[in-house]
Sequence to fold (126 residues):
Amino acid sequence: QVQLVESGGGLVQAGGSLRLSCAASGRTFSMYKMGWFHQAPGKEREFVAAISRSGLTTYYADAVKGRFTISRDNAKNTVYLEMNSLKPDDTAVYYCAADRHPTSVVDTRGFLYDYWGQGTQVTVSS
Fold:
């Protein structure tokens, strides 16, 4: 089992940056594909970014391409989400998730993820 703990959220002005971190427990972190999702009030959870086990493959939602970067450090059991040029529409609770399914390099569908963190709030003011 994997436990995930997000950190790094906060309040930032539009155009600013934040770096989210997600620390995972256990010694098998490199076996999991990782993803970031967000959920705004009154909306469904949405895919943001995903990264393969090795970190060599990444995938982004169209809304964040060119602004967000996902990365991982398997030695530190941590996945990151660097968020630049933030917009008020990015305001949401951000969740990291771990996916052990072997059938694809990355996954964008939330139901494929096995473990979720508790979330960290990101608020972007205009």
Summary: The two ends are 40 Å apart (CA to CA). The CA atoms of residues 93 and 121 lie 4 Å apart.
